[in-house]
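Changelog note: in this version the structure field was regenerated for every chain. One regenerated record is shown below for reference.
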Amino acid sequence: MNDVLPDPWRAWLGSRERQSLSLPKYRQAAVLVALTRETDPRVLLTVRSSELPTHRGQISFPGGRLETGESPLDAALREAWEEVGLHSADVEVVGQLDDAFTPIGFHVTPFLARIPSGYAYRSSGEVARILEPRLSELRALIPIEEERVLPSGERHLLYRYPWQGHDIWGMTARILHDIVQSGVS
């Protein structure tokens, strides 16, 4: 951590009210939204293996379901280690982003973190490929917006970010949209 200059992401998180969800019937999960420590940070994303039972080939943040007795932060850090070999000692957790949910019943707690640039990741059986788009590249994209109406009548705006032949969508795009729109670098 840089002791001289405050992290702009920490200031951004401190200036906004975090949106938490109460979804007791949903399964708990957590993801690590990792940005490299650079002027124009890279965003750590994974392409999920085509061998997985769910979300095959989708782009996601490292993360997954909470194990018994595990906190959301512990789960996000454990999953980042298991999926891409990101050691928790190399992760500076900045704070929590807004909760998210998936249509298949996951309540997801995302953690914003800073990591070293040029990290020597390793893929696991869950990950087909590691992607690191620069934040400026994602900001230059025009996201595709789609409105969905839930059975309750509640409306949700969904996003898709087409990037270098990949389609970033769903919960990952929702979380990414907050980062892209933040104006922070």
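Spot check on this record: The chain is about 20% helix and 30% strand. The CA atoms of residues 50 and 81 lie 20 Å apart.
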